[in-house]
Amino acid sequence: MQENTNTNQEQNQAPEHKPQEPHRNYIGRLARALRLFLHGRFDLREDSASQEAVMEEVRKGIEFRGTNLWVLVFAVFIASLGLNVNSTAVIIGAMLVSPLMGPIIGIGTALGINDFDLLKKAWNNFLLMVAVSLITSLVYFFISPISTAQSELLARTNPTTYDVLIAFFGGMAGMVAQTRKDKSMTVISGVAIATALMPPLCTAGYGLATGQLQFFVGALYLFVINAVFIALAAYLIVLILHYEKKTVLDPAAQKKNNRYIAIILIVVLVPSVLVASHIVRRTTFEDNVDRYVAQVFQFNKTMVVDYNKEYHYDKNISKVEIRLVGEPLSQNVIDNAEAQMADFGLKKTELHIKQTDSDDRRHLDISRLQKGYAEIIDEKNATIERLTKRLNSLTTIDTLSGADISRELAAVIGNVKSVSISKHTAYDNGKPAGESVVAIVKPIDPSMLLDLERIEVWLSVRTKSGRVKVILEE
Question: What is the pLDDT of residues 149-159, one digit of tens each?
Fold first, then answer.
């Protein structure tokens, strides 16, 4: 009995020592293979230059004196001219020329390796770069005869979170290119265009020159966004590549530095998030209004002449004002249209209807109304012309007194029993190539020859057609 008991205990414990299932080993091998594949494809250290070579390039880009400083001044003038005349191509050229990336990359790199001497030098050159750029653009816009803010200028005064993302990913691409053995000038040039450091500084100078504080603040904030997140990108790439620290800080000091960096990022980021959120709400509101007007205000005898959209942030009620022409809408119809606003995401929106029979007739945009009617008339005229051409191509020769022509031909030529006359349109590769008159002549006595050439000449004169084709029916 004791032996049987031991045997049963061994059988009960046996499943605990079973080998692992085969599919688990397969999944493990597949995961390791995938990890090795991804590491081999995305490893930044494969073709990276040495830390010494990269740092040498960073130090060269930081310094602003002599050639670099003059190139910066010229680039500012080019960018200011482009903004002034609203030329995108000129602005892009200025971004390619400008050496603004150097000190910003230097700040991020210095923070990544704790090189505080390099950080001080990069910061001083960064301030010099900003001061020279602002003064140069200020001088240009102060003496420029064109003071109107063009679209290229306005585009640099309202930064959003999208500008943050552009600056960050652009900075990442630029720093990765900076750390390669074979530096790609294509990448560096593309980063200069994408991050757009020069135009905001010039726009800030325009704000100073014209006394428009909102331009100065908005453009300078966009420049700060670009600079901070390009520096952050450089800082992260240095950490990813595990560059050797010049100064080893104790954990408490390193944590303090990281906290300062996080605070700066939050302070810079939060306003752009708020602005982006406001823009998204406004864009959504305007799209909803467009859909609402297009779908709800469709009437046979009433037409929408124009409509205005007023979006208000916070607790203010937004407004939609619609101007109508034609048969006035009843109050029931207007109430029904107002009730449908919630279906289009316009719950907190007031609807104002302006009709032509009201006292507000003076607000009617006559020019837009005339333009709308002119477009309708032009479209109808084009349709009439197209249908007329089609009808002419299908019209028979009866419109040219075909019955009379048949009798006259029999009298003039003789031996003509019947004549069938029609217009014929020739097509070349699907396009009309010209019209001709086709006549099918049947003789009284087939044994007697008909002078087809004479018939063609006579029909050409009679029908006033330069192209006549006569076919003899046997």
Answer: 666 666 666 66
